[in-house]
Structure formats: structure tokens, C-alpha cells
Amino acid sequence: MALWEAVLELADDHLVLGHRVSEWCGHAPMLEEDLAMPNMALDLIGTARTLYDHAGALEGAGRDENRLAYFRDERAYVNCLLVERPNGDFAQTMLRQLYFAAFMEPYWRQALHSSDAVIAGVAGKAVKEMAYHIRHAGEWVIRLGDGTEESARRMQSAVRALHGYTGELFEAGADAGGVLPDRAALRGDWDRVIGEVFAEAGLRQPDGVPMQSGGRRGLHGEGLGHLLAEMQSLARAHPGAVW
Amino acid sequence: MSEQARAWAAAAAVPDPEVPCVTVAELGILRWVEMRGAVAVAGVSPTYSGCPATAFIEMAIEAALCQAGFEARIERVLSPAWTTDWISDEGREKLRAYGIAPPEGPAGKAALFSAPEVSCPRCGSRDTAQISAFGSTACKAQYQCRACAEPFDYFKCI
Ligand SMILES: [Zn+2]
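Above: inputs. Below: predicted complex with zinc ion.
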């Protein structure tokens, strides 16, 4: 296990979630959200691009961002399971975004001091973007959780659907040799943000939900294969194509 | 004028493709230009991780340097990360005149769950409301003025 693999895990998290969020483009429930979704997707995909190039350079086998994004199969993807979960309804999408951003914001805050200059540089941008995502998704979780009977029911069912995928965020993946933040140590920050939002939204975190994991070892749900098929088909049909 | 100063002037005059009222120098995304032998090297910082204009801006700066007679190269500078604090006072005035409210206050002070107070670029009123935290480009949010009813873009403070 090496640093490049740990960077690849981060890159995969951002690309897969970015692609999921981009699926809302043209389908969001109102115009403002139709702008917000691609904006958030771009933040995530932009971060992924720099991370892929960095992972490729660290690996030293000549793979660039396109090679890593478009020419690896499902089993070679090492994203966590949370980010590949289907969009479901708007409640589920926004809760997934909140869960992820509430983890990444303190993660990047720690990574600002990384000894790796590229990671520290990515962190400088991403930490601010994640704060925006927390705010945007958090407001929706509160609005829906504290909204109508139906919106509250959907929000609580999103919590049931996704909560079991949050444990993996805190699991150590590939050994980054101290260059990347300690995931387990971010639990307190995450709990605090989620706790604040849930209190305002009138939601509760379920007890005793078994936590799913396996993404870091390439063991994924059915949905990831479909996502990759759509995302990779053009690059694979026309390898090396340029505009 | 030194070669370095001439190269800076050529690169600095390039307008931002999405907000063409300001130059890349006024926005603070052109960090430096230095001569390395005969090559003019420009350091450029992206505004947002996924800003689709990043590659275009780099090409435009390279083209401007070539047009000024230089062999040119671009270096992408990630650290320290670009912040709206680097937009010059002149740049802020130009944004306002263009109808975009410039970022308010220093970056990094935003509270988790509150939208910033923004002055209307048309009438100057502080009685404005955020319509959406996300706008037509990654760097902007949508606002509306309650005093004069003008909808406007706010250059997010980041
Ligand atoms: Zn006004």
C-alpha cells in the first residue's frame, strides 16, 4: 500500500459523487437547484482531476487523469460506498451530500498542513467549497426534515437508507504514511455538524445500524457498474479522442 | 521597459472570459510572470477546483504572451489557494459598475448557516436577499435587491 493509492481513493470518491450529482442536471425540482447541482458536481470533479493527475504521477506508471478515470473497471475503483449510492429522491441526494461534505470539510482543513504540496494546494480550494456544500445541503435537510409530513417522512427514510454507509468514511484505507489526515480522528467534527443539522431538522440518527464497507477493496454495489458504463462509454469507444 | 515588465503587461491585460470587465491581474489569478532565459513563464491560479474557464484562461494568457513576441509557458499555481481577497480595489469597482456585487469582507469569515449581507450594485441598498448560493458560474451567487427590485450576481467571498 502506498500514498498514490490513498490519493486514488480520494479521487474516486470525488469523481463518483461528482458524476452522481451531475445526473440531476436538467432534472432538478427548480431552476436554482438546476444551477446548484452542476456547480457542486464541478467542484467535486475539478478536485478529482487534480487528485488523479497527482496519483498518476506518484504511481509513476504513466497514467494520467483520463487513463485513471476512464480505463479502470469497477473492481479497480476504490471509492467509498456512500458516494455511489443512487440519487433516489431529493432528500436522499441532499443527505448524501451533507454526510460527505461534513466529513471532507474537516479533512481538507487538516490537509492544509500536509507535507505534500499538491494535497495542501487542493485542500486550500476544497475546504472552502465543502463549506458551501455543507451549508447548501444542510439547509435542504433542515427544510425537508422540518417541512411537511411527506417531506419529513422522506428525509427520515433517506437517513435509514444512507446511515449504514457513513462508517466507511472513517475507516483507514491505503497507508498514506502520515501525508493525509487520520480519518478516524474526524469523527467528532462530523458528529457535531450532523448533530446540529439533525436537531434543527427534527431527525434522529438510527441506533444499531450495521455499517457497510468494502469500497476501498473494490467491492461495490450494483449501481457503480451502471454509473461507470455511462461515464466511460465515450472514452472507450473513441480512445484518445480530442475536441 | 524590461522584458519582464513587458511580459507582465501583456499577460495582465487579458480579460477574464466569464467576467470580461476585469482582467486576470485585477482578479488576482495571474500570480507572477518571470523570464527564464528567453521564455516568459506565467503563474496562474484557478478560482474554483472545477472552474471550466481555467484551461481557457491559461491559453489566453499564453496567446497574449506569444503575440507580444515571447516564447511562453504557463505554470498552474495551486498553493496558496486563490482567494477573493486578492481582487484589487480597481477590480472591485469595475465589477460593481458591471452590475456584479464584489465580495464583501475578508474570506474565511462566513458563518456556516447564514448568507452574507450584500450591497446592491445598482442602488447601493443593503436590503438585499440571496436567491441562490449558486449562480451562472462557479464564482457567483444570485441575489435580489428589495429596495429597487434588481436581480444581480454576487461574486462569492471565498
Ligand atoms: Zn438596489
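Chain A touches chain B through 34 residues (CB under 8 Å).
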